[in-house]
């Protein structure tokens, strides 16, 4: 049996999805630490959070950062989606694209795992292509109501359905494969 992983997050929705996808094969424990986010590429943001978390916890850690990239805007808001969503809301995200015909977007989930302080983080990334649409479905998690994949918004999907095709599920599949290969060579 693999040892439990410390997933550092203050976001209950993320934790629920990560547990639903990984458990029982990989046991997830969680700690909430407020980790500063630098400016930079998606990977740089996740890596820097991971290094900081490994120092604070003084052990192996997993962190995650989510980006929502609008193709018409060259990938923005990207890792800054949290602040755009907070300040402008679902309608504001739609308004950002009002001047463009292209409403396509990509949800990007980046996990970074470090075995401990001073050790280089390993990155696992998952991407799901979709479209930004006026909000449909219950507002339970972030921008779920405005991100449409194959005709349904994330918010309109059952959680099991979202967890099959989501950016997070795709990243976790890679993480799972890597952890399994580590167990075999251990
Ligand atoms: O799967 C998702 N669906 C909808 N919104 C999400 C999803 N994952 C993350 N978000 C939202 O996107 C933003 C991502 O920012 P970040 O990953 O830094 O979040 P956190 O600080 O809450 O962990 C947050 O507003 C978060 O609530
Ligand atoms: Mg972030």
UniProtKB/TrEMBL annotation:
Its main location: cytoplasm. Binds 1 divalent metal cation per subunit; can use either Mg(2+) or Mn(2+). ITP binds at residues 9-14, 49, 65-66, 141-144, 162, 167-168. Mg(2+) binds at residues 37, 65. Its cofactor is Mg(2+); Mn(2+). Its EC number is 3.6.1.66. GO terms for biological process: deoxyribonucleoside triphosphate catabolic process; nucleotide metabolic process. It is an enzyme of class 3 (hydrolase). It comes from the Eukaryota. Signal peptide: none annotated. It catalyses: ITP + H2O = IMP + diphosphate + H(+); XTP + H2O = XMP + diphosphate + H(+); N(6)-hydroxy-dATP + H2O = N(6)-hydroxy-dAMP + diphosphate + H(+); dITP + H2O = dIMP + diphosphate + H(+). GO terms for molecular function: dITP diphosphatase activity; ITP diphosphatase activity; metal ion binding; nucleotide binding; XTP diphosphatase activity. GO terms for cellular component: cytoplasm; nucleus. Keywords: Cytoplasm, Hydrolase, Magnesium, Manganese, Metal-binding, Nucleotide metabolism, Nucleotide-binding, Nucleus. It is found in: Cytoplasm; Nucleus. HAMAP family: HAM1_NTPase. Homodimer. Pyrophosphatase that hydrolyzes the non-canonical purine nucleotides inosine triphosphate (ITP), deoxyinosine triphosphate (dITP) as well as 2'-deoxy-N-6-hydroxylaminopurine triphosphate (dHAPTP) and xanthosine 5'-triphosphate (XTP) to their respective monophosphate derivatives. The enzyme does not distinguish between the deoxy- and ribose forms. Probably excludes non-canonical purines from RNA and DNA precursor pools, thus preventing their incorporation into RNA and DNA and avoiding chromosomal lesions. Belongs to the HAM1 NTPase family. This is Inosine triphosphate pyrophosphatase. It comes from Trichoderma simmonsii.
